[in-house]
Structures are given as structure tokens and as C-alpha cells.
Amino acid sequence: MKFFTEEHLELADAIIARYPKPRSAMIPLLHLAQEQAGWITDDAMAEIAELVGTSSAEVLGTCSFYEMFKRSPVGKYVINICTTMSCALLGAGELMEHAERRLGVKAGGTTEDGMFTIEGAECQAACTEAPCLQVNYRHRYRVTSDQFDSMIEELASTNHDVPDHGVLSRIRQHIPEDRFVGAVPPEDVVSSPAWMHDEKAD
Amino acid sequence: MTDMGGTPIPHAPGFIANDTPRIVTARFDYEDSYTMERYEATGGYQALRKALHQTSEKVHGEVRDATLLGRGGAGFPAGVKWGFCPPGVWPRYLVVNGDESEPGTYKDRLLMELDPHQLIEGCLIACYAVGLSQCFLYIRGEMAVAQERMATALNDAYSAGYVGKNILGTEFSVDIVLHWGAGAYVVGEETALIESLEGNRGMPRLKPPYFPAAVGLYGQPTIVNNVETLSNLPWILQHGAGAFTDIGTESSPGTRMVAVSGHVQRPGVYEIVNGTTTFRDLLYSKAMCGGIRDDNQLKAFVPGGGSAPWFTPDQLDLPFEASQVGPQGSMLGSGAIVVMDETTDIPAAALTLTKFYAQESCGKCVPCREGGTWLEQILRRVVDGRGTPRDLELLIEVGETICPGDFPHAAVPSKGIEAVPFPYQMTTICFVGPSAFAPIHSALTLFREEFEAKVAGNENTTTIEVTIDV
Fold it and tell me: By C-alpha distance, which of B96, B73, B74, B92 is closest to B83?
């Protein structure tokens, strides 16, 4: 059974064409699959394998290594609470306890209505704004218990701009055809690039 | 806070501008710093034009002369690294390391979110100088905003003719391909980054070969540079290597971005003068962190990212100069300083880092995979009050399976402890394993009494309780 929509399939082809070897597109395509379904299904992995010329077992091998790829459904909003040093020094533990109480699930769990998953996460590069968290990989800074509660209310309403889990960048890279150099596979190149005048003799 | 110098910038949460020279953060003052319009209006893409009028070799020479030290952690001079490409082997690639995830580190994300064109221009200069035929910009998966800003900037740069085929009407042609990770700290290690870019698990490669410049992406010469490193290039080309080396010291010229988090009055990301600024300047000056919170005493600080052995107030006068910090037992690493005041539970603080590295082990090397997990579990029971005095020895024994021999640490004159210089021996391919041990070793060496207090009363405990988190 086909997984990708026609639009995504077209996009997948454009992505693969940017890499010297199709397998390099595996992670970008897994992200695309997660964007489409919210998690990584077996169908998605089978189709990605076909697209990049490998087996679905190989795709699973790569997929399972990276913690952002979810191999079972998660909440519409994945809330990652940073638990590493800078945040831990400034109340991440208390924030996590509060989050677990407020949502009635433990870290790693998803609320029954499928809205929220909370996870204990590692350093999110916002260490000066501790304790911090991310909702679908978008930061919230210096989060108090009250702010956490109002964030949950906000996310439960429609009054916010956080996309559903799986959507990372809402802007796609677009390379205009007339500007695209094209992938540079090792086997296609034997000499220095045209602008390296001095090294042409190599 | 109003009586403090330095200006927080609301649209750049965490960043605080001060009056030191600003090479990479100058544009942060503008609310639209990330747009093509602002970039071009503030001298953007002029360095590229300048470079294209010179030979590649000349541009490379300028960067070599600038002694631009890599800002990712290892601090290796970028111009020298570029020179490691074997002659006559083509194509060569550029891989941009935007997988910032070292605990405490927070600068590359700001550079990508707030000045994406500066990074793009830096990439182009590097490609031109070294003859790199294709560039892959690897952004950490968990940075959605940086991905969006970079994608917009890149789309605009393609349309404007700065990226792609026949750049600015010259023979110089290179694509920059956006690529993002999916959550794995170890991928910041350059050979793991390459594995990940090839569609594999992000496991570091066996060494030698030591440098991807010799054997990298698809086995080809590959330059892997950090985001901040590349972001310096437009300024260096525009102003010249001499202007760059006029700032800072001869061995550590220019500026560098540092993030100070934890128990300071004003945590922030600062651009500081390299080589001369001291930790005391950074933590106590009014223009920067303004001292320890609540007027508390400083107990200890992590000087260079979670992987770095810790310092105490005795090392405050050391400058950001690797040749001075190394002999004193630590490293400058990725420019992340985490500050602990007198109220800090030291063993618990160490656990927040050891847990991180244990979690992020890729599993390739046994000492890291097994050792990291054991270090975390043993330390956790000590922190929870279930540990025994024997556990303190066990922590060191397990650590020594990852890092045999003397492990670096700072001096503690009051206790008669002398410094053991950086670096260390290791039984693993990369630094994740040693990094799980570093916080434990520092904490135990510098604050042993806190560990002893936690295990006191458990001397006669004979059973070792093992907890395995599944």
C-alpha cells in the first residue's frame, strides 16, 4: 500500500535529487512521513525503502536510532521538558512534576484524548531561559507552573500557531530549476571545480 | 537589573549586547535581522563579492592568517583544517554542523535564527576557498524556528543569485542543501554527523582516519565546520585577517559567543573578546552576568559545556585561552558556562549531566554504553541516599574503564589538590563516554565531602540494589 500523498511523493523525489546518494535522503523522508501521519508507520518505512533503494529493515535501523521519530502514535502536541543541568538547577524537576499532575500522565505518556504527550528531554539550547520546554520543537522560556497551565489551555483551544506533531519547518527549501547545480556524486567528478583556477593542474 | 550595563534584546531571548566588538552578533540589534533586506542593507554578501574577485588560494590564506579557531568545541584552526584536504582528490564537500546540543550551549541556534544569511555567506566563502562542490547544512532536528529561518533565507538567496548555479555571474556554482537531524547528541561528533547524512545511524567512525577532510562524506574529502565558525567568515573577508587578529590574543583572536546559565544574576548569551576576557569578567561584571544570584557565593562552574571538567572560584581569573585553561584541568569547549551557587547539591548536579551522556551513548563502544549507564545508576543511588561508601570507589573504577589513567581536574589549593592537565586517555571512539565521567570525577574530586555525607550511615549495607530503567 502506498503511503505518501501525491504531493509528498513529488516532494520526496525533489529531496532525493539533491543528494549524491539517495540513501542520504532517508532522514528527510522520515521527517516527511512523520509530518504526514504524526508518527512513522510501517507503510511509510516500506515506501521510503523503495524510494531510496534499500530495505525497510535498513530504514527501521536508521529510524529507531533517532528519538524524534515516533514508532507509535503520540499526542497532537509533544511537550518536551528539558531536564539537563541548567534547567535542572532552576526548577525543571518541579516543572515536570507539575506537568505530570496537570495532565495526569507520567513522562513518556500521552493523555487519553490524544492531545498531549510529555517527555523528559535533554538540553534544548535555551539554557539561559531555564526552565524551558518545547511544544512540537518550538520553545517556551522560563516556564512557571501557571504558565504551563495557560499553555495547555491555549493549545487545547484553536488560538495558537503551533502546528501538529510531525510538522517541523513550515517553510520548505525550494531550489529554482534554473539555479539548481544538482547533486555532485563522487563518481561524476575527477577534477577541481571550475573556479579553482590555480588547482586545475591537480 | 536596570543599573546593569549591557542590553537585553527582546526579539533575541537570552542575548545580551555589550560594548565589546561584535563580529557575529552585530545584526541582532535589528528586529528584522534575519531578512534579506536587512542583510543587504548592512553590508551583506559584500564579502562574497570581494572573495570572488580573488583566487581561492588567497581567500583560504586570509582565513588561515586570521587563526580562526573552530567554535564547535575542539578549537582547531579552521584555515589549517581546510588544508587537510588531500590534493587532487575531488569532489570535496562542506558539511555545516548545526547540531548544537552540548549541555549549556546556546549560540548556533541564535546565529541561525537571527542571522541566517551571515551563515549562508560564510558557507559560500568556505566552498569557494577550498573548492567544495556541494554544501549540506545540517540543523538540529529540535530547532524548528532555526529551520524555518534558514529555509526562508536560503530560498531568498537562491532567488537573488547568491546560491546555486553561476553565483553572481561567475564560474562559482554550489548548492546549499538544508538537512535536519532527528534527535541524537552524538551526531555533533563530525564523523557521526557524516554517517547520519549518509542515512545511517549516527555512530562515530573508527579513527584513523582522524579527519573527514581526508576521508569524509561518501569517502570524499569533507570539511565539517561549526555554525559560529562559518559565521565569522564574512567579517574576516570584509575587514581582513589583520583586523581580526587585532582583537583578542595572538593564539585566540577575534570574539566568541558564550552562554552563561545557572545561578547568575543575569544568565545570557554574550559575544566576548577571545583570549583576554576572564571567567571573572564574564560572571561578575555589570555589563555581563552581574554576579551570582541573590548575592550568594559561587561554588563551582562548568567552563566549556557539559563535557568539561569543572572549575571553582580558584580558577575565575583564567582567560578564554585554551593554552591556559588546559593546564588547569579543563577546556573551553563549546563556550557554555553553567554556574552553581552555594545552595547547589553537587552530586545531584553531576547526575543531571551524567544522565544526559548515558542517555545519549550511541552504543557502539562498550565502555561508554555499559559504563555510562552504570555511572548513572550508581550516582543516582548515592544522590537518593541509598549509596554506600564503596559506591564512591566504584564510580571511579567504572570511570577508569572509559578513561584510564589520571583524569583532568582543577586545583584546590585549600585542600592541597594540584591540577591534572587536560586532555585524558580514552577507550572509546568519541567523547560521549568520557563526558559521562567528567562531571562525576570533578564533583568527587572537588567536593568529596558532599558525597561522603550522602553515603554516611550506609557503611554496613552489603546488598547492592540495582535498578534498571526500561
Answer: B92
